[in-house]
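Hi U.,

Before I forget, here's the chain from the pilot set. I'm dumping it here mostly so it's searchable later in email.
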Amino acid sequence: MRSLGYTPDFKKNTKKEFSFCRPLLGDKYPRFHIYYNEEKKEINLHLDHKAPRYKNAHDHGAEYEGKKIEEEVQRIEKFFTRKQ
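Structure:
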């Protein structure tokens, strides 16, 4: 994930997932955010537009589909298919 520009996000996650973030414009937000569930081999990718307003809240204005998400998925897939 580091090779793709993502850094670990060490916030506590009750779903036992690894969390990684990649800023889109060089600042903390907006950012791509990936949850990886190693047990299920599943990835959840979304674009966080802003930080949650309240502690322990999840209202961060995330985008789960659209052109930017599709482009990021393609970039990640290209990286991993190139590695095989």
